[in-house]
Structure formats: structure tokens, C-alpha cells
Amino acid sequence: MERILTVTVNYKTPELTIKCIESVARERELNTPGLTMCVVDNDSGDDSVMMIRAAVEQGGWSDWVEVIAAERNGGFAYGNNMAIRAALARSREKQPDFIWLLNPDAEAEPGAGIELVRFMQAHPRVGLATGRSFGVDGQSKTAAYRHFTPLNEFLGQFQLGMLERLLAPSLLVIPTGDEPLKAVWLSGSSLMIRREVFDDVGLMDEGYFLYFEETDFCLAAARAGWELWYVPASRILHLEGAATGLTMHEVAKPRRARYWFESRRRFFLKNYGPFRTLLADTAHMVGFVLWRLRRRIQNKPDLDPPYYLRDFFANSVFVKGFRLADGAERPMFKVARLSPSRRR
User: What is the mean pLDDT of the chain?
Assistant: First the structure.
């Protein structure tokens, strides 16, 4: 019997988190007694812990759901690591075989976790897998991605359909359908991770507060020789952005949070080096400026976050330089390469 630990990090969204737990409870009823769950509250400062614990007690889930109250809000990686670190500190025979990261604003459809584990059992080189996610409108969301490049940073901001069709193999997002496919990195809303991946690459980088931490972890796993796959048989309902207030698909967008820019800068410098980060920042801003000009000429609606260009430049390497929060300076011409070294 495979042991699966589901980890969910809550911050001021107890109602969503309780619905997430309910969906995992339905998953557990599908003859998966080895499925347990740990909910970490990132110091919400409200009634979250009380509400979630009450729901666990009322639902009769206390024997398989643990609720941990963190002393501070250290971010998404910090919250996940708190649960994962405790699980990996157990004796080997009691450690989970798989750790399932599930967003609090996600609800797993019956069999979502099982399908991911079945695929990974059939393919021992797969270290991480995600499934198909849908919004409340029934539209499928992006889940599989290629490497970030200056070109797809430009294309993503310029938003010209004709150019995107011409350069489709260079786009960041990989089109997904009804067949499994391999990717460079995966959506973190529902991410199944084989325990041995943590043996190879360690825990998630807590230098990220929110966003890009799962992307960073995926690249680290890929460099260690693990494969990453999208498995459409696994399905979740994802209320994207409901737990963070940040979504790429809403009509009226708020100003982009500073931690998004900080996480993006950390990710690029850490994984691609200063020179490629400089190129990526330049391409991103040029693409965005050209899009804003085209938007005005074509009289398209203004759906961009307010002050986005100003905020992006203020947090780019042009202003912040090449040092990360840990004080380490990255060599100008360092370029990250995928060079799997794992021997299986």
C-alpha cells in the first residue's frame, strides 16, 4: 500500500481549505487508506486554525488529518517544508512514498491523486506529476511549461496571435490535451512528488515568499535526472488566485504584489544567471511596451495591472542588480543547463 501525504498551506482562506480537505476525504474513500493530510496555517492571524480543526473534528477526519499552526507567515515554500520536513524525519518505513502538494483553492475530483500515483508507479523515472485543472467556467488551465527564454518572455507580453502561432514551439506554455506529456516544469496547484526527489534535491527554497518556488523545485528535480509529466486523467477544480488575490485571468486586476517581482528575479538569477536575466528583463519590458502601444492603436480594453511597467522596472536587475536576498552574487555569464546526473 502506497503512503501518500497531502500537504496544503492555508493563509486566511479557511472555507476554501475545508473544501479542499473534503475533496481529499472523498479521494481517501476510494480504497486509499494510506492517504493522510497535513494542513499548515501560515500564521493567518484570524480564526482559520479554529475553523479548520473544528471541521476536521466534525468530519471525523482526525485520525488522518493534522493541522499545524505556524508561528509566522514564512511563505508558501516555508509552509510546505514545515509539513514535509516532519514527514521525512520519521523512520524510513513510516515516511510517505509520495507527497501531494495541493493548493487550498483546489478541489480534487475523485481519483485525482490515485491517477498521478498510478502513472508514476508505471514510470519509475517520473519524479513529479500534475494533472488537468479546470476553473469554475469549465475551461482547462495551463499546467505544463517549457524553459523561460528571452523570446517567450517577449512573446508572452506582446500577445500577438499571429506571431505566437508562427513561433509556437518557443512559447512558454505547452498545449495540453487528453494525452500525457513531458514538460520542463509543472503547475504547483496539484503536484505529486516522489519521496526520493527530496533525497536528491532537498526541500523547497524558502528564499521565495510566494510564486516561482515550485518552478525552481521542478528545475532542480529535472537537473537531478527526474522526469516531469502532465497526466490528464487526474483532474482538479482550481479557483485560481482565490487564495492569493493574484490571478492572470480576472477582468479587473489589482496592482501586482511586490513579492511576485522579487520571486521572479530570484528565480531567473538563480537558475539562468545574470546575463540571461538581463536579456529576459529587457525582452519582457520591450514586449509589454509594444503591447501597450498596440492596445491603444487597436482600442483594446486595458486589463493590465496598474503601474505594471513601473513596478517591473523597479524590481528588475537594472535597479536591483545581480544579488539575491542571501547576498550571493551571480557571475554575469553563468547559464543554467539541464545536465541530468542521476543514475537509476
Answer: 91
At 31 the pLDDT is 74
* Banded pLDDT at 293 (limits 50, 70, 90): very high
Q: How many angstroms separate the CA atoms of 243 and 260, rounded? A: 14
Burial (Cβ within 10 Å: 0-12, 13-18, ≥19) of residue 337: exposed
Smallest CA-to-CA distance from 7 within 41, 51, 52, 57 is with 41
Residue 70: C-alpha distances to residues 46, 78, 81 (Å)? 13, 9, 11
> Do residues 246 and 303 lie in contact, with contact meaning Cβ atoms separated by under 8 Å?
no
Q: pLDDT category, 251, cuts 50, 70, 90?
A: low
Q: d(Cα 4, Cα 234) in Å, to the nearest integer?
A: 15
Closest listed residue to residue 238, CA positions, set 196, 201, 189, 202: 189
Q: Which of 295, 321, 299 is nearest to 308 (CA)?
A: 295
pTM > 0.85? yes
Rg, C-alpha atoms of the chain: 20
**Through-space distance between the first and last CA atoms of the chain, rounded to whole angstroms:** 23
- pLDDT tens for 322-334 read 988 664 545 444 4
